[in-house]
């Protein structure tokens, strides 16, 4: 009898650990994504634009490729962890927070990608007026990613803080 109860306690403890770990990973991944995204909007892209359109266009491609790998990984990790947190806690707000962050992926694919493709086209270097318009548009579109990720992070921080109160 006691062995069975100890076994149940261990399973319950393991689920609690998994729940806490999932919430930590969801929040941490969202925080890292948000920090990177806001940094791009407030620091990197404005600095890129100050260098002049030709250098900004040249710098865009390597920056874009590096950021893509990092940000997709963080968005997916956060969403999957939020999904686990939702399933283990039955609190749909974890799913909402994860959904806000993972929404940047289809938003990027459907809304930002046409602009990205034009900016990555080597022929764009021959039309600097158009390149400037596209880089400016890209900055505005990227701000949506920053807003979605900030909303995700605030949701997760609220949920984590709520548990401690």
Automatic annotation (TrEMBL):
Matches recorded under Pfam families: Anthrone_oxy (PF08592)
Domain of life: Bacteria
Residues spanning the membrane: 20-43, 64-86, 92-112, 143-161
Signal peptide residue numbers: none
Record has Transmembrane helix as a keyword: yes
Keyword Thylakoid: no
Keywords: Membrane, Transmembrane, Transmembrane helix
InterPro entries according to UniProt: Anthrone_oxy
Protein name: DUF1772 domain-containing protein
Species this protein is from: uncultured Rubrobacteraceae bacterium
């Amino acid at each position: 009898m006691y062995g069975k109860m100890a076994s149940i306690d261990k399973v319950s403890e393991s689920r609690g650990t998994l729940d806490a770990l999932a919430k930590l990973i969801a929040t941490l991944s969202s925080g890292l994504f948000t920090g990177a995204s806001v940094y791009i909007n407030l620091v990197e892209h404005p600095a890129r634009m100050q260098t002049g359109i030709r250098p900004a266009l040249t710098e865009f491609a390597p920056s874009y490729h590096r950021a893509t790998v990092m940000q997709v990984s963080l968005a997916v990790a956060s969403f999957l962890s939020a999904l686990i947190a939702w399933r283990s806690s039955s609190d749909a707000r974890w799913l909402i927070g994860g959904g806000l962050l993972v929404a940047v992926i289809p938003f990027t694919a459907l809304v930002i990608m046409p602009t990205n493709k034009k900016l990555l086209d080597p022929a764009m270097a021959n039309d600097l007026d158009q390149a400037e318009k596209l880089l400016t548009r890209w900055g505005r579109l990227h701000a949506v990613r920053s807003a979605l990720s900030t909303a995700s992070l605030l949701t997760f921080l609220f949920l984590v803080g709520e548990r401690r109160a």
